[in-house]
Amino acid sequence: MIKPNATVGDQPVPTDPARRRRRSPRVNPQQPPLPLADPLSALSSPLSAVRDLPGLDDVAERYPDRKVSVSARHKPLEIYSGKPNQQGSFALDSQEFFLVISQFFREALPLRIIILMIACQRAGGQIELTQEEMGTVLDITRPKINEALKEIMEHGILFKKAPGVYQFNPPYSYRVAEFIPATDGQPAQMIRVEQADRISEIRGDAGLPDRVRFPSLDAMRTAIEELRKERAAERAARAAKRKAAEKDKGKAI
């Protein structure tokens, strides 16, 4: 609990919610800003390293059991798995993405595939999974898997890199790192792929569709609003019909 006149780092923290203001992140000068016309709505501001946000490292240090470092004093966003100097893998997911797809997809299968893809990501957001394997895990036939995958990819949520290899669009869900234990004489290793680097790589690939290079949830939001209006009109029509039927019944009596 934050006491009155408490500070986070060297910044005062107001206790009145009405007086609180969201602090704007400082943009990393070494990182080029996004194009002005960029429709990427999954990220609300230009990409900047977490360590550039003031005061977060001081907050993280208040939780020693969860050693999360967010400044240049340590490696960014280290999450320890309990063993000394051993990082655990972690993912960055867009809450807005989950909110929109939960409203947009009216069938369960696309959502189940998206969840499966998130669970099977490797460092860098790559998924090595064939349609047969997806069908086996989800207990669904391959034709239905293929149909749902096409619908998902139409919105730029993920794209196919090679047979059995897909890439999740980084702004929506991204596995930053993974720890690979030692096996068969091979030393353990930590593989890490920066999200901003992968986004830049995808944007620079002119062979990819614009919906992949510059993902946006606006089309889904528009479709959701249109569907809500249609369903509201249908409900109103049914209610009017019931009311008219009750009125006619009353006259007959």
* Main sheet characteristics: 3 strands, antiparallel
What structural category do the secondary elements indicate?
A: alpha+beta
Shape: elongated
Helices and strands, in order, run as EEHEHHEHHEEEEHHH
In percent, how helical is the residue content?
25-40%
State the total count of DSSP E strands: 8
Q: What Rg, in angstroms, do the CA atoms define?
A: 24 Å
Number of contiguous helices: 8
Output mean pLDDT.
75
- As a percent range, the share of strand residues is 5-15%
Strand order of the largest sheet: 3-7-8
- Uncertain segments are 17-56, 62-87
Distance between the termini: 67 Å
Task: Give an overview in words.
- It is a single chain.
- Residues 17-56 and 62-87 have low confidence and may be disordered.
- Strands 3-7-8 form a three-stranded antiparallel β-sheet. Strands 4-6-5 form a three-stranded antiparallel β-sheet, with no helix packed on it.
- It has helices spanning 56-60, 95-104, 108-119, 131-138, 142-154, 195-203, 210-213, 218-252; strands at residues 7-8, 11-12, 90-93, 126-128, 158-162, 165-168, 173-180, 189-192.
- α3 (108-119) crosses α5 (142-154).
- The N and C termini lie far apart (67 Å).
- Helix content is 38%, strand content 13%.
- The radius of gyration is 24 Å and the shape is elongated.
- It has 253 residues and is an alpha+beta fold.
